[in-house]
Amino acid sequence: MDMNGEQKINAPQAVVWQALNDPDMLRDSIPGCQELERTGENGFEATVKAKVGPVSAKFAGVVELLDINEPESYRISGEGKGGVAGFASGSANVRLVPNGETTTLLYTVNAKVGGKLAQIGSRLIDSAAKKMASQFFTKFSDNLEAYSPESPAEPAD
């Protein structure tokens, strides 16, 4: 499955970048996300409950941020296992384009599924993925209105 799109976000690039790297912000924005914990500087473990057509499962997986070019872009690579429902793996290229006080987030996703998920058909999977992306951006934008990024620590005297 391949998917791409763009989303205008009403916040400056630096704020959007920080929010996209904040596990709490992401946990609150990802549809069905039950847990999201940082496992290293650029790694996360996640548990997400998802329903695609007749298949419902809890996916446990790992996500890594690669090719980081702060505050402009990175590549997200991950995989998750949902028991008998199957698995999902893939990557997404994310790029932030500043435009004054707003930012355009551009994304390109490539994903593979297996198991029962692969049996339900690509049209249903594509539809569910687009719906989840839309829900993520709506929730992310709503959460961003109340988001206050941590400021860098002041140096001690």
UniProtKB/TrEMBL annotation:
It comes from the Bacteria. SUPFAM superfamilies: Bet v1-like. Signal peptide: none annotated. This is Carbon monoxide dehydrogenase subunit G. It comes from Roseovarius phycicola.
